[in-house]
Amino acid sequence: MTAQLNPRGDVAVLVPAAGAGVRLGPGRPKALRLLAGEPLLVHAVRRLAAAASVHTIVVAAPPAEVEAVRALLAPVAPVTVLPGGAERQASVAAALAAVPAGPEIVLVHDAARALTPPELVESVAAAVRAGHDAVIPVLPVVDTVKEVGAGEVVLGTVDRTALRVVQTPQGFRRAVLTAAHSAAAGDPLTDDAGLVEKQGVPVVCVPGSEYALKVTRPFDLALAEHLLAAGA
Ligand SMILES: Nc1ccn([C@@H]2O[C@H](COP(=O)(O)OP(=O)(O)OP(=O)(O)O)[C@@H](O)[C@H]2O)c(=O)n1
Ligand SMILES: C[C@](O)(CO)[C@H](O)COP(=O)(O)O
Question: Which InterPro entries has this protein been placed in (predicted)?
Fold first, then answer.
């Protein structure tokens, strides 16, 4: 049976957490790497569970760590844990298949975005509830962007006024995400909105949060430690 948080909530959150974390360097799978003494996944799930609209959380864990992740999350929140896939898309599809009847809004959220505030979860869900089929949190690009060619020689300066950096949670009407993943098996696209875009569904942006940074490289982990120490 799928564990529930708030039976009156209308949001299921899928948490792909099965990645290795190659860019973070050698060690345990990234979701289990420690941030202030607790795994990134624990930080992420605690914040998701604090969002009032969340009915269900489904975590796609590294296949060899499913039991360990169940034990780790049991004291944090009622969560369903299943094995993830070799690619992020497969992990999300596996989690989506386990969502029980009920929630009609589905959010997909990286375990690696461990400090994402519950308020961002609610604002993405609210935009889907308001009628958008697909919603992504974004930030503006704050640096000048260059396009380069062979030998790292600059070809030109990119107009960044229309560029956005994309975060999670990404929110979808359930039927829209299900259709996109049914058509997407094995698609190497890095985010779920990309799959939905391929279906011709409009994707709408809402303001993201600096705290929703993705822990990707060692510097990000150090930054997250500082943010947590400062009260994030
Ligand atoms: N087969 C995979 C690959 C990734 N993810 C998850 O997708 C999220 C975003 O991926 P990313 O930050 O790129 O994580 P990794 O793939 O682990 O990173 P790397 O590319 O450095 O190995 C992470 O929470 C990661 O655990 C997953 O569930 N299953
Ligand atoms: C989904 C994502 O977090 C949006 O920014 C991202 O695409 C995950 O994959 P990446 O390979 O680390 O870009």
Answer: IspD (IPR001228), IspD/TarI (IPR034683), IspD/TarI_cytidylyltransf_bact (IPR050088), ISPD_synthase_CS (IPR018294), Nucleotide-diphossugar_trans (IPR029044)
